[in-house]
Amino acid sequence: MFRLQKVSNYGTSTPAVARTVLQSHKLLQFFDRPDSEKEAAVSVLFELQRHLVKCVEIRDQLAAEITTGHLEAESKGFKQAGGGAISLPGVGDLQSKSETFLQSAKLAIAEAGSLTKPFYGKGFSHKYHKFLAWTETKFGASDDFATLVKSWEPYVKRIVGMRNAVDHPADWPGGRLMTTNFDITLGTVGYELVDPSWGLTGEPLTPILADFDAVIEKTIVLGENVIVCLFYKLKGNSPIEILEIPLDERDQDNPRRLTIGILGT
Q1: pLDDT at 1
Q2: CA–CA separation, 20 vs 153, rounded Å?
Q3: Cβ atoms of 207 and 196 closer than 8 Å
Q4: What is the pLDDT of residues 115-139, one digit of tens each?
Q5: Number of Cα atoms under 13 Å in the Cβ half of residue 131
Q6: What are phi and psi of 56, to 5 degrees?
Q7: DSSP β-ladder status, 197-200 and 190-194
Q8: CB 196 within 8 A of CB 180
């Protein structure tokens, strides 16, 4: 079976998100299932897309403010504001942006976990431990579908955990969601700007923008992988398979990487 478990060079723009969801929509046409079930799955895919587009909107706004901050620092330097203080640029409502991004990412992940419902009557939302238990019971622990869900469970747990740290900060064992705006560090040639970062209490903080990009990319691929697994379960006896388009053969204006081929050709 052809499986996709790694991120790809899709990009994180709104058109890229729309095209990749449309790609999964096209794969549904080859499912040997009633149109009503496939239409229900399309509805799930569009909800997944809607939440990812929100992630992209927040990411793009953050990226624009970070770029502006760097331009300000390059043109004005770290101006003294009096009393030896250093003036730094800032991203507006950084904590709110991070919290909203996590909520939309969690909702997108939940839609990927619900793609089974139109075909099997069971969806799992963001509860991938239940998703895993179901795939192992229905198909076997060594089945490709179970293996795939298991491989993605840590990623899902991380995103859900970060959002839970927002919703239940007093009760969540992982701590609170922490964000830091622009900062400075003393480098070899003087002060250097440090981009906004985030993380849970007690963890090393990591750059927010790079993490936003990774979450969008991974969530796209997660949804795609679930569709691929469903394809092989539900294509019936059709002699078809999913093939990956080589990177150098992909349309640069349409980052589609999957196509349908005939088995053995």
Answers
A1: 40
A2: 22
A3: yes
A4: 999 999 999 999 999 999 999 999 9
A5: 28
A6: -65, -40
A7: unpaired
A8: yes
Cβ atoms 207, 195 nearer than 8 A: yes
Q: For residue 192, what are its two tokens?
A: 């250097």
Give the number of residues written for the chain.
Answer: 265
Element (H, E) at 178: strand 177-180
Give the residue among 16, 97, 25, 6 at the shortest CA–CA distance from 55.
97
Cβ-proximal residues to 123 (8 Å cutoff; 6+ apart), any chain: 113, 114, 115, 116, 117
- Does an H or E element contain 126, and which? none
| Average pLDDT of every residue of the chain | 87
Tokens of 164: 């839970």
Single-letter residue type at 238: S
* Res 265 pLDDT > 70: no
**207-244 burial, b for 16+ CB within 10 Å, e for fewer?**
ebbebbbebbbbbbbbbbbbbbbbbebbbeeeeebbee
- How far is it, in rounded angstroms, from Cα 229 to Cα 123? 15
Q: How far apart are CA 95 and CA 3, in angstroms?
A: 36
Backbone angles phi, psi at 80, to 5 degrees: -75, 125
Q: Is 179 helix (H, G, I), strand (E, B) or coil?
A: strand
How many Å separate Cα 209 from the centre of its chain?
13
DSSP per-residue letters across 185-218: EEETTEEEEE--EEEETTSPPEEHHHHHHHHHHH
